[in-house]
């Protein structure tokens, strides 16, 4: 029997990609961007450790689909970040990959032109170029680790990483988290339980060996030393889990697991019951908990863009509104300003 009947029977195409090293050479870091990433990572660690009393505020679009609109958002966020810097460490949410329960647009890297052309190399170039522009503004960036090769192309420009609700139980992602150079947040699974995320954190603390690709695109076995800045992100599930009772339950579970009580709360997803307007209510509750003395809550996440709501990717990409999400609904810029200023005022009052 010929091997062709055994191999690649469901593969219809194979396209070679540029190597991570080649892309990094094409779009290199500058002294300014290196310093933004270095300071951002160190600041996030200090917040997670409690050495910095501020809250980590991971704010930005559900996903990046239009880099021009996202650049405008980043410029506004950089100015606001400076304004609220006394109480908030603002990191821009920059998500280029979207996990899908079934099918759908998988993000800028996978399909940058929104037309099922899947020009992945162009997507990687757009993504890296955008991250450089964000870092040039002095604004640290946060992203989700979904594809296992993406960190080789983009990871040097990221200050905080997330392991999503659908991948928190993945051994591969736990292994990557153990070796990644940023603090990494494990989201609780979509059912709302925290056990899988806590197990993921414990796994990421440990040493691992796994298969991957080098900056030159060569297969290799990576050995890791473990990531002591892994922590939990509460994103809700069948019911929200941002309230004081749920936070206390999570604190207890972390203590029993022998882990630091470091919690970031996602104001969207299950915590907002998928109603983007409820993010404001969630954030106010979080701020109140911190103002009344909670010390385990170290940060929050907001899904925010220039315009509120979301639009469907069903017609021509040219007809899309550049500043409105094409994935999860987001709060608009005016609401974002109001909420971060509110948090800053309340937390400033707590300090006096």
Structure explained in plain terms:
The chain has helices at residues 20-26, 31-49, 67-83, 120-136, 150-154, 171-179, 195-205, 244-256, 279-291, 333-351; strands spanning 55-60, 88-93, 141-144, 160-163, 184-187, 209-213, 219-223, 230-234, 263-266, 297-303. It is an alpha/beta fold. α5 links the parallel β3 (141-144) and β4. The longest helix has 19 residues, at 31-49.
Briefly, what CATH class?
Alpha Beta
Query: Please, how many domains?
Result: 1
On the 0-100 scale, what is the average pLDDT?
Answer: 96
Order of helices and strands: HHEHEHEHEHEHEEEHEHEH
In DSSP terms (H or I, runs of 4 or more residues), the helix count works out at 10
CATH topology name, in short, is: TIM Barrel
* Fraction in helix: 25-40%
Q: Structural class given helices, strands, pairing?
A: alpha/beta
**Largest beta-sheet characterization:** 8 strands, parallel, barrel
Q: Which architecture would the CATH scheme give at its second level? A: Alpha-Beta Barrel
- What name goes with the CATH superfamily? Aldolase class I
**Percentage of residues in strands:** 5-15%
Shape estimate: globular
- For the secondary structure, the number of strands is 10
- What strand order characterises the main sheet? 1-2-3-4-5-8-9-10
The parts where pLDDT drops under 50 for at least 5 residues are none
**Rg from Cα:** 20 Å
- For the record, give the distance between the C-alpha atoms at the N and C termini, rounded to a whole number: 79 Å
Record the SSE blueprint:
Layout: H1 20-26, H2 31-49, E1 55-60, H3 67-83, E2 88-93, H4 120-136, E3 141-144, H5 150-154, E4 160-163, H6 171-179, E5 184-187, H7 195-205, E6 209-213, E7 219-223, E8 230-234, H8 244-256, E9 263-266, H9 279-291, E10 297-303, H10 333-351
Parallel strand pairs: 1-2, 1-10, 2-3, 3-4, 4-5, 5-8, 8-9, 9-10
Antiparallel strand pairs: 6-7
Helix pairs in contact: 2-4, 3-4, 6-7, 9-10
